[in-house]
Amino acid sequence: MHIRFYHAPDANCCERLLWILDYKRVTYERIDVGLTHVGEHVTRHSPFARVPLMEVNGIALSESMAMAEFIEEIAPNPPLQYTEAFARAQVREICEAVNSSIHPQQNSSTVRYYHPEWSKEEMQPVRANWLRLNLQKLQGRLWLGSQFAVGKQFTMADIFVSIIYRKALDLGVQVSDLPEYEQYWKFLMSDETISGSCPVAP
User: Fold this and answer.
1) DSSP H stretches of helix in 46-191
2) 198 φ/ψ angles, rounded to the nearest 5 degrees
3) CB-based contacts of 197, cutoff 8 Å, min separation 6
4) Quick check: 52 and 17 in contact, CB under 8 A?
5) Measured between alpha carbons, how far is 111 from 109 in angstroms, rounded to an integer?
6) Cα distances (angstroms) measured from residue 70 to each of 103, 108, 160, 188
7) Any bridge partners for residue 29, and if so which?
8) DSSP state of 191
9) Whole-number Å distance between alpha carbons of 175 and 19
10) pLDDT tens digits for 78-128?
11) For the stretch 169-193, what's the b/e string if a residue is b when 16 or more beta carbons lie within 10 angstroms of its beta carbon?
12) Pairing of strands 59-61, 53-56
């Protein structure tokens, strides 16, 4: 099986997939493209002309949740999901909260659609505030059984949550605004197996 992964620097969705691929030690070919100019190949094979894009034996996948679950199925160890059905649903709930409810609305392309006159700098506080408010809302669903996002082990929910938290900081959210997330981030980074595969590790 040949996996080719199209990636853009600082793309939140790409960082999730890189972490999953590297944590599981999956062999893949990485192709870096621009974030705003993704190139002809990605434009042709991604319905929305954006990254991440993954090709498996030449056939494209274009959504990060589909890619994450595919990787989990072909490389189940080390696991990033539970075996019990409801626990698996809880992991998906958190991933989708990030993937569908939080991330898309702050994406620069979404903001630009409604405010084409705004510069990147003018977008930044709006994007940051959206992430801050919604990460605060999500907090009540996290860390209920341990210091991990869901249950008692590292899962893809941890990857989705911590990557979007780091994006919030990059956009100007203060650590003091989300202190529980910072404590959580430090907990994850204290494990060398986890931090060693993280593309945004300090």
Assistant:
1) 64-74, 85-96, 103-106, 108-114, 120-138, 156-170, 179-189
2) -80, 125
3) 19, 22, 23
4) yes
5) 6
6) 21, 27, 16, 24
7) 4
8) S
9) 23
10) 999 999 999 999 999 999 999 999 998 888 888 888 899 999 899 999 999
11) bebebeeebbeebeebbebbbeeee
12) antiparallel
pLDDT tens digits for range 15-63: 999 999 999 999 999 988 876 666 777 777 777 657 788 899 999 898 8
What residue ranges define each of the domains in the chain, with the CATH number in brackets?
Answer: 3-74 (3.40.30.10), 85-197 (1.20.1050.10)
Which residue shows structure tokens 């600082």?
Answer: 10
Q: Which helix (H) or strand (E) holds 142?
A: none
Q: Tell me, what amino acid is at 44?
A: R
User: 14 CB contacts (<8 Å, ≥6 apart)?
Assistant: 7, 8, 51, 52
Amino acid (1-letter code) at residue 146: S
| Residue 7, SS3 per DSSP | strand
What distance in Å separates the CA atoms of residue 15 and residue 175, rounded to the nearest whole number? Answer: 21
> Which residues does residue 53 pair with via DSSP β-bridges, in sequence order?
6
